[in-house]
Amino acid sequence: MADDSGSAEVEESAETAPPARPPTPFSRPSLTRFLMIFLFLLALYAIIDPAVGTGFASFANLALFPMFGFGGTLPVLTILLAGLLTTTIGSIIRDHYTNWVKMARTQKVMSAWRKEQMEAMRKGQQTRLAQLKEAQQGFMKDSMEVQTAPMKSMAWTMFMFIVIFTWLRLFVDVVLQGLGNQWIAVPWSTHVFVNAVYVFPSWVLLYSLLALPFGQIVVRVLKYFRFRRRLQAMGVPLRAGPDETA
Asked: What is the C-alpha separation between 99 and 102, in angstroms, rounded?
């Protein structure tokens, strides 16, 4: 009897025990979101405390100085290559987080919607305005995704920019000053002190001179290949045939 009652209690407890929770699956978006927030806070901390940014730059110096430091003998080339590196990586990160096809489609839809809205407002068509307001809900989600896409890449690019920019400042203030090689030739002058201020220091202007336009070129090239692959996946010919051009 005791054995029967004991086994009955075991069976009853087994039946009433809550089922085991399945293991939480790995969530890649959650990890990416965590890394973006972490890098953004780290970049913000580096801005508030310059010593932190200097520490990151000193660590990056182990790789950057052998790559294009040139021992401090070619400061113009070093600054330009640092600008190319920053804008190239930043453009690739931006391309990764941006759906160019969805952005183009959403912008086209919003442009047509605004045109219809202005026309309805001009004619005082309240029914049409109500219909357009309902239609707006259909593309509002895509519009929000397009608007928030740059925010996803901002943490990565901001942190990288702070590290490389701080490294360049140390390169100019420590390496070039130690070598006495602080005079450079730039497009607007053949003999400029590298820390001379023209709204910004000369080395910052030189950095921006190539970095900003080159970044736009990289973005356009990446965007071209994105659209090209999308058209190929859709089976759309990349060049118009003779019948289509006629």
From this structure: 5
Q: Of 107, 147, 146, 116, whose CA–CA distance to 134 is shortest?
A: 116
Segment 148-179, tens digit of pLDDT: 777 777 878 888 888 888 899 899 888 888 88
Rounded CA separation 199/208 (Å): 13
Please give the pLDDT value at position 13. Answer: 47
Distance CA 134, CA 160 (A): 42
CA atoms within 13 A on the CB side of 180: 0
Q: Which two tokens stand for residue 153?
A: 């890449």
Phi–psi pair at 187, nearest 5 degrees: -60, -30
CB distance 85 to 215 below 8 Å: no
Gap between the Cα atoms of 100 and 227, Å rounded: 8
| CB neighbourhood size of 149 (10 A) | 17
Which residues of the chain carry a pLDDT beneath 70?
Answer: 1-32, 236-246
Q: Which ranges in 98-241 belong to alpha helices (H)?
A: 100-123, 126-170, 177-179, 202-234
Three-class SS state of 201: strand
Q: Evaluate if pTM is beyond 0.85.
A: no
Q: Which two tokens stand for residue 131?
A: 């219909």
The pLDDT of residue 242: 55
